[in-house]
Every structure is written in C-alpha cells, then in structure tokens.
C-alpha cells in the first residue's frame, strides 16, 4: 500500500468520524425527548476526573471479600463493565453491570456504582444532553 493510499484512507476515516459526530449532535435539536447519546461534543466527566473515579473503585478492590479476591487471584486480571446514563442534571440513572462472573464481585461493584456522585453532564452543540457511559473496572491480582 502506498503512502498516498494510506493517507486517503486516514482522511476518509476522519471524515466519516467527523460527519457521524456532526449528524449525531445536529439531530438532537429535532429529537424526541428522552433520547440518550453515546458520543457528544463534551463528554460527561466524573467530579475530579478519571483519577478520582479510579480512586473510588480502588476502595472497592481494597474491601473485596475473600470469595471475590479468590476469584481475581485465580484469573489474574478481570474487567467488570459498568453502564449508566448521565442525565442533563448530572444525576446517574439506569445503572447496571454488564458482566460479572462472581456474585460477590458484582455486589461490590454495584454498591460502588450506587454511591457514585453526580457527574458534569454531556454537551452537544451547546445543549446539555443525556449520555450513556460504559466503563471497564479492572481488578488485578494483589
């Protein structure tokens, strides 16, 4: 593949991504109330940033019960995916865990998810909008 063809593919991909983002935000003004987005101009943010969110879940890992810790020790590294909607007021709704093979681990992550504070909301074309967020929480063997 030549440098020119690689450059063309990169430009095309950037155009597709930019066009898709533009369409997403432009469509909000005509959307039905209650529409939830996954990509916006300004994504919602945890108070204090991702470092503070990581610290929030580090406390979960530190306080895991024996069963959950044994499970993580047996697999080495395990990711639990969480999902929620950051509403226009920053409140979280529709909190859920998308995967968890260990019940105790799921309960620990769920408890931490319930105590998560309000986020700064997402913004699309200058308008505050609800945004669905999905994150992995990674647990590693001690």
Features:
142 residues; alpha+beta; Fusion Protein Consisting Of Minor Coat Protein, Glycine Rich Linker, Tola, And A His Tag, Chain: A, Domain 2; 2 domains; three-stranded antiparallel sheet; two-stranded antiparallel sheet; 5 strands; disordered N terminus
Give your account of this protein's structure:
The structure is a single chain. The chain contains 4 helices and 5 strands. The chain has 142 residues and is an alpha+beta fold. The chain is elongated, with a radius of gyration of 19 Å.
Give me the secondary-structure topology.
Blueprint: H1 3-28, H2 50-62, H3 66-75, E1 77-86, E2 92-97, H4 103-114, E3 122-124, E4 127-129, E5 131-140
Antiparallel strand pairs: 1-2, 1-5, 3-4
E-strand count:
5
CATH topology of the largest domain: Fusion Protein Consisting Of Minor Coat Protein, Glycine Rich Linker, Tola, And A His Tag, Chain: A, Domain 2
Radius of gyration: 19 Å
Order of helices and strands, N to C?
HHHEEHEEE
Largest sheet: 3 strands, antiparallel
Averaged pLDDT, please?
Answer: 77
Percentage of residues assigned to helices: 40-55%
The low-confidence parts are 1-23
- What coarse outline follows from CA principal-axis ratios? elongated
Structure annotation, total helices = 4
CATH-derived architecture of the largest domain? 2-Layer Sandwich
Q: Note the beta-strand portion.
A: 15-25%
Summarize the structure.
43% of the residues lie in helices and 23% in strands.
């Amino acid at each position: 593949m030549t440098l020119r063809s690689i450059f063309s593919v990169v430009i095309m991909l950037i155009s597709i991504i930019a066009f898709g983002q533009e369409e997403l935000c432009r469509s909000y003004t005509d959307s039905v109330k209650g529409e939830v987005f996954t990509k916006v101009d300004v994504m919602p943010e945890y108070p204090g940033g991702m470092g503070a969110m990581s610290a929030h879940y580090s406390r979960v890992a530190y306080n895991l019960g024996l069963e959950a810790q044994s499970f993580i020790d047996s697999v080495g590294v395990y990711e639990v995916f969480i999902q929620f909607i950051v509403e226009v007021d920053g409140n979280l709704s529709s909190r859920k865990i998308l995967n968890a093979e260990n019940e105790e681990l799921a309960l620990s992550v769920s408890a931490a998810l319930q105590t998560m504070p309000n986020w700064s909301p997402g913004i699309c074309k200058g308008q505050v909008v609800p945004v669905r967020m999905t994150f992995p929480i990674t647990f590693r063997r001690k």
